[in-house]
């Protein structure tokens, strides 16, 4: 009975935020900035044609463009289906992380440590990453989270799929989708995977046929991203490379600072130290190999800031991108902690349980001071999200039912801190207004002055 306490505490820490995420997802709303544009393009031009239009006119992220055109507004003008995006992310994140930990740590399904680490690892991301709602409630932000899990899925398939033909097919598909899902994941994957492949080829004195195949698919995918006509439209015309690189260094330091200052991350790192045990049949990297791999990881991690500063025209790192980069940082340092732990004597089972209980109690106690937990709890407890959703739904229902071609809508009175909600413009020529007008097949829709 005593041994089940850590599992109960980890389920409690995970369940609190899972309950808030799912409860608030029922009040999710489309974003004024993007969702109506994707909904209009996907409905009127078709999902694939709409995705191509965005690829040719806005962004080379071909797989992300496709995902965004599966917006719920393509299939229905009601907002009730947006909750399924949030619920899907929760399920995909847990299952993918569960099998990642099971495979890499060689744990069995009935091992409570597998469930403890799976629950706490997902929970620590929820509580720690900034702008969590931008990933889970903004449909156009879902692909950031999914791109990270494509990288996790790649590890699961590349190292642990036992069927050769299925493995090669799945890896080829994952590489193609991963490269086209976003700049961050593209750089992190390319910067780590190919140096490892070169090292393996040098060590074995040969290049495997599958490596050549993967390189061809990677090259085609990179070409599709870099040669997209949309890049010329979106990218800034005059780039100050000196300021851009300086900004990249500052942003790199900012994310490291967020990582270091997060107490929940360090509690989770301590959980890794006291929980994992050395697998019976898994060779460890040598110190030289680990040092080289960790150097490549840090270098790739730094490189992801360069397109943000030089190619995307961002004056700061949006929270959704901070969240994605921070998850990669947590993954990289988590790997380092596991490697160092496997070089030391294991903790005996009795001390392990006591340590887990102590750390999980600390983890739960810290939730009272956690910003994400406070934000989600306040939105749920005081019906802020509910009231906002009701008012926003009502005003767009009136637009849907109106017979007029020129429609003005009132501003939202019930403000909230979530759902990435920007307000409509009073200028009918504004891009957002034109997208909404096209979606509802109106001549003009704008905010009432």
List the helices and strands and how they pair.
Blueprint: H1 5-25, H2 35-45, H3 47-57, H4 62-68, H5 72-75, H6 83-105, H7 112-128, H8 132-136, H9 142-160, H10 164-179, H11 183-204, H12 209-226, H13 230-234, H14 241-260, H15 263-275, H16 287-303, H17 305-310, H18 319-341, H19 349-366, H20 371-381, H21 384-401, E1 406-409, H22 431-439, E2 444-447
Parallel strand pairs: 1-2
Helix pairs in contact: 1-6, 1-7, 1-19, 1-20, 2-3, 2-22, 3-4, 6-7, 6-9, 7-15, 9-10, 10-12, 11-16, 14-18, 15-18, 15-19, 16-18
- How would a textbook summarize the main sheet? 2 strands, parallel
Helix content: 55-70%
Which geometry do the CA atoms define? Answer: globular
Spatial gap, N to C terminus:
64 Å
SS class: mainly alpha
> Which strand order does the major sheet show?
1-2
The radius of gyration over CA amounts to 23 Å
- What is the helix/strand order? HHHHHHHHHHHHHHHHHHHHHEHE
Low-confidence stretches: none
Note the beta-strand portion. Answer: under 5%
Mean pLDDT: 85
What is the tally of beta strands?
2
Q: How many domain units?
A: 2
Tally of helical segments: 22
